[in-house]
Design brief:
The complex is a heterodimer of chains A (312) and B (285).
Chain A: H1 2-26, H2 31-36, H3 43-52, H4 59-71, E1 77-78, E2 83-84, H5 85-120, H6 125-139, H7 142-156, H8 170-203, H9 206-213, H10 218-235, H11 237-255, H12 260-270, H13 273-301, H14 303-311
Chain B: H1 2-9, H2 20-43, H3 75-111, H4 113-127, H5 131-141, H6 146-173, H7 176-183, H8 188-196, H9 201-224, H10 236-243, H11 252-282
Helix pairs in contact in B: 1-6, 2-3, 2-11, 3-4, 3-6, 3-8, 3-9, 4-6, 5-6, 6-9, 7-8, 9-10, 9-11, 10-11
Chain lengths: 312, 285
């Protein structure tokens, strides 16, 4: 079962890598011109490009060489930033990691307790508030929320900086607050919905009734229910992650943060294909890995599945 | 987007009363916006007309209720005319994805076997990439225009429709009436599309309503990033990109389209949820 799952993930990544590779050849315009970018197209430069990308080799060899290089972290040169793709990505990874980490933490801290309360007090004002928050959070595009927050907290009541990433350390953290809150709204809505649905289901089970009948305090019953509700919540992690990827691009663009999201946007508009390829592949691998980890966590969290796994 | 699927499938275990007021408000908003989509061009015929003399007027200026942007375009007129661009695409995406979902989902769920396997792997593949990322990359690198972006999003939205229809069809296919139809030796196509499919409609309609909401978000996100909609077009997402720089001079240029996008997406989402609860309670046995 697990082996099948891993093989399936690898197969999907392989197909995706082929698609990502062909982007270079399918992009409109002459491939050499695309790779040269703004550089002068002297015969030497063209020859250098042809050699560097092995354009004279058959297509499948080009793919294999490209894949080999990609696996060792060599994605070629960014024509827009005149630097190696790995350097460009490395220098921007920190901001994106900090932003998504902060947003995820915020979302988790608010959405899980709110989801539990909203399930426990189904139909109360807190449930109504949570449902409303969930619907708006799910529907509102990240950039629209970001621009509203930007207007209110950076122009109308100037507490937070307008944009940029600050000078590092605490200043950067301060600059990341608004974008993180923006991202956390959407993330939180998803986590809230997952938590509420899972908790409602758990609260209707026999063991909860039994625990109550035995006189366990409500708090303890809810904690036990939450532990079981954790399974669908964790399996929903890939959902959260797919939202996070799109959301980061939008939040970074809205607040002009120099992270991977703005890098992607800039590279796409400039048709800096090497960078786009690297980022797409990076995201695909990250998502596949996390989805796989979520499945492992599933086994870890549910003793019934663990027993079935080991029996096979 | 797999979140639509999760929301449709993760139905609440017991029926709960929805706040009818919120649903009525949502329907009213959707009605007004539909009116703007249909007749916006008549109300604001020359929304993109520029006037350097009137640039950057604040909201409430004479003749310009919501002020103007840096090119002197009237924000109210732009917003009215922009409704069409912001909504026609998403509705087409939801419809196209619905058609693909019905065809592939029914075939996949009823026939099973190798066709089901191929369609299943296809949806797996599309699901493994975040929708927005795939759309940005493909539409951006290939410089797709408006209708190409619609086609692209149909493709990217279809896996959730396919899976939902497939799950519904599989549930129905095990029921006695299907066996009865097989006994009467109805053709497979006839059983699939005239016997099984009508029982899955409630799921399909609910999901399509939610798809409109998510497609609106995806579409406006793309035009905000500068992909999909040509510069200078009257479009809500585009207005946000252009308006970001003039937020201090004319906040209405950003706030009005932003609130409209949030409002319409939330309204579509709410109505979709509500429809889902109404239809699944009465529609399915």
């Amino acid at each position: 079962m697990l082996v099948v799952r891993v093989l399936g993930t690898l197969a999907i990544l392989l197909v995706l890598s082929i698609i990502v590779f062909s982007m270079l050849h399918l992009a409109p315009g002459d491939i050499v011109k695309n790779l040269l970018g703004n550089r002068a197209s002297s015969p030497e430069a063209i020859a250098a490009i042809r050699a560097q990308y092995n354009l004279d080799q058959p297509l499948y060899m080009q793919y294999l060489i490209w894949l080999g290089n990609a696996l060792t972290g060599d994605f070629g040169q960014s024509i827009r930033l005149q630097d190696s793709v790995s350097n460009v990505i490395g220098s921007r990874l920190g901001i994106t990691a900090a932003l998504s980490g902060l947003a995820f933490l915020l979302a988790l801290v608010v959405a899980v307790p709110l989801g539990v309360q909203s399930a426990v007090r189904s139909g109360s004002w807190i449930d109504r508030f949570a449902t409303g928050f969930g619907i708006v959070g799910l529907s509102a595009p990240t950039f629209a929320v970001g621009l509203l927050l930007l207007y209110v907290f950076a122009f109308y009541v100037p507490i937070f900086p307008v944009y940029g990433a600050g000078d590092g350390g605490l200043d950067t953290l301060w600059h990341l607050v608004l974008p993180a809150v923006t991202l956390a709204l959407g993330l939180g809505a998803i986590i809230l919905k997952l938590t509420r649905t899972a908790m409602l289901r758990e609260l209707e089970t026999d063991y909860v009734t039994f625990g109550r009948a035995r006189g366990l305090p409500d708090r303890q019953v809810h904690l036990i229910a939450l532990r079981n509700a954790a399974i669908p919540i964790v399996t929903g992690a890939s959902l959260v992650l797919t939202f996070l990827v799109g959301g980061t691009v939008l939040a970074e663009t809205t607040f002009a943060l120099p992270g991977l999201g703005t890098l992607l946007q800039g590279s796409v508009l400039f048709k800096d294909i090497a960078v786009v390829q690297a980022l797409t592949l990076l995201v695909a691998v990250t998502i596949a890995t996390i989805a796989l980890l979520a499945d492992l966590a599933y086994i870890f969290l549910d003793p019934r599945i663990r027993a079935k796994e080991s029996a096979q | 987007m797999s979140s639509t699927e999760a929301i449709v499938l993760a139905k609440l275990p017991r029926s709960r009363r929805r706040h009818p007021l919120a649903v009525w408000l949502s329907l009213a908003l959707l009605g007004v916006v539909t009116f703007l989509v249909l007749f916006g061009n008549l109300i604001a015929p020359d929304a993109t007309a520029q006037s350097i003399l009137d640039s950057l007027l604040p909201p409430g200026s004479p003749g310009h209720l919501l002020g103007t942007d840096e090119l002197g375009r009237d924000v109210l007129a732009l917003t009215i005319a922009g409704a069409a661009s912001a909504l026609v695409g998403p509705v087409c995406v939801a419809l196209g994805s619905m058609v693909l979902g019905i065809l592939l989902g029914t075939v996949s769920g009823y026939l099973r076997g190798p066709i089901d396997f191929i369609i299943g792997r296809w949806t797996d593949l599309l699901f493994s990439l975040p929708l927005l990322l795939a759309a940005i990359v493909v539409a951006g690198v290939f410089g797709a225009g408006y209708w190409m972006t619609v086609l692209l999003l149909i493709l990217l939205f279809s896996p959730s429709d396919i899976r939902i229809v497939r799950a519904g069809v599989m549930e129905q296919a095990a029921r006695p009436f299907v066996e009865a139809a097989q006994m009467l030796s109805l053709s497979k196509a006839r059983i699939m599309f005239t016997q099984v499919l009508p029982n899955v409609w409630s799921l399909i309609i609910t999901n399509s309503m939610l798809n409109v909401a998510f497609a609106l978000v995806a579409f406006s996100s793309l035009s905000f990033l500068g992909v999909g909609v040509a510069p200078g077009t009257a479009d809500w997402g585009r207005q946000l990109t252009d308006g970001r720089a003039i937020m201090i001079d004319n906040p209405a240029a950003v706030l009005v389209p932003a609130l409209l996008i949030i409002g319409v997406a939330s309204a579509a989402n709410l109505v979709g949820d509500w429809l889902g609860q109404r239809l699944t309670r009465t529609g399915r046995s």
